[in-house]
Specification:
Arc Repressor Mutant, subunit A; 3 domains; 12 helices; DNA-binding
Length: 278
DNA sequence: AAGAGCCCCAACCGCATCATC
DNA sequence: AGATGATGCGGTTGGGGCTCT
């Protein structure tokens, strides 16, 4: 019996994903999840096969994927597990959080295999920050430069020019004083409940977008900014359930693009719920 | 500077397995 | 229990970027 193709391929896009397609897929999964891959592309308005969407999400767009070079420990884990499990890449990937089976398979074939066969063989040319394909850079997380954020999240005290910039934004638009920005979290929560929570979603997101895209936080000027300005350029006049913990965790120095994506997805979900209730 | 060859990795393909009816 | 559809998995490919000559 000949199995029918997983989808009607005539007229569907193939090959590298465009930034717009990535964004559509991320937005759609953020809103509705991915219960049915076969139906997803049609629902999302993507000219892609469901299988292709799944692969793109699982191997690249999923929020919990770790990018960048494999550490020595990860490589040793792969070598050890490959010795135990063989080419069961997905099983190996389960032991390496944030790494995909495809990525592990690639690193095995391109680097680790020859090291195992002959430990004296030198490593292949060291990986540099080589330019990736344009499409693959659409939502690239590996070079977002978020680590340069230096807010002290334990005390919520703003210490740098980033603080000045965001601080003035908060002062101007939310009537938040400098002393507010140095409050401990409990005080801040109280203050939020009494004063800040009446702001509309669009106002809050204007600030969070500015924070996420300002050059202090985003070293890779342009891409993330585009992503967020495009994605968040939606109107909302309703109040949202964005909580102070959410909002002020924006200042955590460990935040990266995954964090911002999670914010986006949750916010969109919240908007959906709020809109439905109106 | 240019081009040939190599390397890397995202994406594809086909088969296996699981889920549902 | 078997048919059918959906998803997962591993092997492979193709093209862009990098290095070498």
């Amino acid at each position: 019996m000949v199995r029918a193709p997983c989808c009607q391929k005539i007229g569907l896009n193939r090959g590298p994903w465009a930034a717009e397609e990535d964004q559509i897929l991320v937005n759609h999964i953020g809103r509705f999840g991915h219960g049915n891959w076969r139906a997803l592309p049609k629902q999302a308005g993507l000219l892609r096969c469901g299988k292709s969407c799944r692969l793109r999400w699982m191997n690249y767009l999923r929020p919990d994927i770790k990018r960048g070079n494999f550490t020595r420990e990860e490589e040793e884990t792969i070598i050890r597990l490959h010795g135990e499990l063989g080419n069961r890449w997905s099983a190996i990937a389960k032991n390496l959080p944030g790494r995909t089976d495809n990525e592990i398979k690639n690193v095995w074939h391109t680097n680790l295999k020859r090291r195992v066969m002959d430990p004296n063989v030198p490593l292949k040319r060291p990986k540099k920050n080589k330019q990736k394909r344009e499409s693959s850079r659409a939502l690239d997380r590996s070079d977002s430069g978020f680590s340069s954020c230096v807010i002290d999240s334990s005390t919520m005290t703003m210490e740098t020019s980033l603080g000045d910039r965001i601080g003035s934004k908060l002062e101007d638009e939310f009537n938040v004083s400098e002393s507010d920005l140095s409050m401990d979290f409990t005080t801040l929560e109280t203050r939020w409940n009494s004063d800040f929570s009446s702001h509309a979603a669009s106002d809050l997101l204007t600030v969070s977008t500015e924070i996420s895209t300002c050059d202090y936080v985003c070293g890779n000027e342009g891409e993330i900014e585009r992503f967020w300005s495009d994605t968040l350029a939606m109107e909302s006049t309703v109040e949202t359930p964005i909580s102070p913990s959410y909002y002020f965790n924006l200042f955590n120095s460990d935040n990266d693009i995954d964090f911002w994506r999670a914010i986006l997805m949750d916010t969109e979900r919240d908007w959906q719920e709020v809109s439905q209730n109106h």
